Every structure is written in structure tokens, then in C-alpha cells.
Amino acid sequence: MAIHIVNHPLVQHKLTIMRKKETSTCEFRELLKEIGMLMGYEVTRDFPLKEIDIETPVCKTTAKMIAGRKVVVVPILRAGLGMVDGLLTLIPSARVGHIGMYRDETTHEPVFYYYKMPAGRERLVILTDPMLATGGSACDAIRRLKADGYKNIRMMCLVAAPEGVKRLQTEHPDVDIYTASLDQCLNENAYIVPGLGDCGDRIFGTK
Questions:
Q1: What would the 3-class secondary structure string for 55-109 be?
Q2: The overall pTM is greater than 0.90
Q3: For a tag site, which of 78, 140, 169, 174 has the least CB within 10 Å?
Q4: Ranges under pLDDT 50 in the chain
Q5: Does 194 sit behind a cis peptide bond, omega within 30 degrees of 0 on the bond before it?
Q6: How far from each other are the two terminal CA atoms of the chain, in whole angstroms?
Q7: Peptide bond before residue 69 is cis, with ω within 30 degrees of 0
Q8: Known active-site residue 95
Q9: What is the model's pLDDT at position 161?
Q10: Is 85 labeled as catalytic in the residue annotation?
């Protein structure tokens, strides 16, 4: 498994604006959509191509098209929804699944309150969650996807903490991580430092 840092200048510029505490909900949401699309270029970089015969207005030629790769974008509710539109702009034919969960306060086990996936276990799953903090939610979601028969899974997040990356690498070494930034650490409240706060609240204006 590899971690891919998407350090394109446009991604880094937009991420810096998102980190600022004065950035509005509207601007934060739009920037997340844009970064989702830009990061999608890296997540899909290795898609296989096939050659087909076409005719341009000038002549006949052989050109390249994606060779039948089927994709499902799966946000972890609720913050993961913020990255979906950008990916769908890039891959409009992609299906969308949803995973919603919370952790039981007594057992500390994940409780899935919503799980809905399209048909086709052979699809590439792009799992989205802007924050990879402790890695707990991501690992639980991946475990559920694997139990359901999905084998090709990639994790896409906006910022990641070393603690979350280490846990994901340990529990799911076959899952590649794509992130715009590997931040410093987690604080005592399990927030990513420097991070950008509670991404769900900033997307939906609930705080």
C-alpha cells in the first residue's frame, strides 16, 4: 500500500484557503468540490486505456479511451459527501454508494446506520472522507466493504494525520491513500493539527 500526496499547486493553494478559520461555508464547500475533482486526476492516473478507430473532421485515426473501468464513489457520511460532486464532474458515469456509521459508547464497536451500494462488486471503490484522523471510521468502512465482496478500494481524503495513516496501513495494507496533506499529529481531542477544524460542520454550516 502507498500513500500519495497530491501536491499540485492548485490543490495546495485551495487547501490553504480552506484551512483559514474565516473562510465561509459557501467558499469552503466550493473549494472542497474543486479539490475533489483535481485529486481525482491522481486517483485515476493508472486507469487502463484501449485504442479505438474514430474519424475526426479531418481524417480517420486511432485514439485512446478508458478500457471499461467501472467506478463507485463512496462517501463516509456526512463529511465525505463534500468530495463527491467533484469526482462526479470528472467521472460522470460513476455510481455512488453511501456509508453512515457511529461508534457505540459502551462497546466502542462501529454501528452502521446506513449502508447502500450499487450492484457490481468488481467496481473500483473510491472511498471519500476529508479527514483521516484516527483512521477508525475509514478502517471500519473498508472492513464492511471487503465483507461485502469489494476488493479494489482506494481512500481519498483532504488531510491526514500520521496516526490515521499508520492504522490504515496496518489494518488494510492493500488500500492506497490519496491525500492533499500529511499533517503533523492529532491533538488531545483527536483533531488533526494544523488541520482545518470539523470538516462536516464547515461544509454544512452547522457550527
A1: ECCCCEEEEEEECCCCEEEEEECCHHHHHHHHHHHHCCCCEECEEEEEECCCCCC
A2: yes
A3: 174
A4: none
A5: yes
A6: 36
A7: no
A8: no
A9: 96
A10: no
Query: b/e for 61-90, b at 16 or more Cβ within 10 A?
Result: eeeeeeeebebbbbbbbbbbbbbbbbbbeb
- Which pLDDT belongs to residue 1? 66
Long-range pairs for 18-25 at CB < 8 Å and ≥24 separation? 18/158, 18/196, 18/202, 19/194, 19/195, 19/196, 21/197, 23/202, 25/202, 25/203, 25/204, 25/205
Residue 198 annotated to the active site: yes
97 neighbors 126 (Cβ within 8 angstroms): no
Task: State how far the Cα of 18 lies from the Cα of 30, in Å rounded to an integer.
Answer: 10
* DSSP characters over 126-171: EEE-SEESSSHHHHHHHHHHHHTT---EEEEEEEE-HHHHHHHHHH
From 89, 103, 148, 174, active-site residue:
103
Read off the pLDDT of residues 113-159 as tens digits, 9 standing for 90 and up.
999 999 889 999 999 999 999 999 999 999 999 999 999 999 999 99
Q: Is 176 a known active-site residue?
A: no
Q: Which helix (H) or strand (E) holds 9?
A: helix 9-19
